[in-house]
Design a protein that fits this description.
- The complex is a heterodimer of chains A (about 120) and B (about 110).
- Chain A has about 120 residues and is mainly beta.
- Chain A is globular.
- Chain B has about 110 residues and is an all-beta fold.
- Chain B is about 0% helix and about 55% strand.
- Chain B is built from no helices and 11 strands.
- In chain B, the strands form 2 sheets. In chain B, strands 2, 4, 5, 9, 10 and 11 form a 6-stranded mixed β-sheet that branches.
- The chains are: A mainly beta (about 120), B mainly beta (about 110).
- Chains A and B meet through strand 4, strand 5 and strand 10 of A and strand 4, strand 5, strand 9 and strand 10 of B.
Amino acid sequence: DTGVSQNPRHKITKRGQNVTFRCDPISEHNRLYWYRQTLGQGPEFLTYFQNEAQLEKSRLLSDRFSAERPKGSFSTLEIQRTEQGDSAMYLCASSSYWGGGQETQYFGPGTRLLVL
Amino acid sequence: QKEVEQNSGPLSVPEGAIASLNCTYSDRGSQSFFWYRQYSGKSPELIMSIYSNGDKEDGRFTAQLNKASQYVSLLIRDSQPSDSATYLCAVSMEYGNKLVFGAGTILRVKS
């Protein structure tokens, strides 16, 4: 069990560019979550997948954001036409949840995005 | 009103003392409660989870839940300088769902 991994760990981009982040969950975890965290705040939910199905997307999430988990394993989060307000730490978490009980989410190291 | 509220701190305690961190939540139907520790520049690390009213102990950590008062707390006994971090309270409105986080409480343990 190697933990959740995220790549890249840091990304600097210019406003208007597109960026894509990757998350590899803990092996055999069926759920994968994306959160965003800005300085001085707790993580904020963006979206989550159960296997390859995207089950919920935050109402706060702009249509510039899209996420996929095509084979139910790794996931990608793409931000199109980045804005300075997108600068944040993007966190991925995974869990093993099969219904009817408790779920524990384990976080990856995050991708820190800076939009200039 | 924020869904999950925490005192931002910083909370300063001397080494060896008990640190008490508090959290209130707004949704009375919330089912799952978590405490995560986050060091500066790092990602959240799970410390404790609690699902039923009462206390749950794990080593130096005790989580307390009072659903009637919509209140969760974390006690850290024998605080160490390495406990200095931001402590995030997270709540899930139903089993198997997204987490809603508070803004975190900064804890400083002075040696």
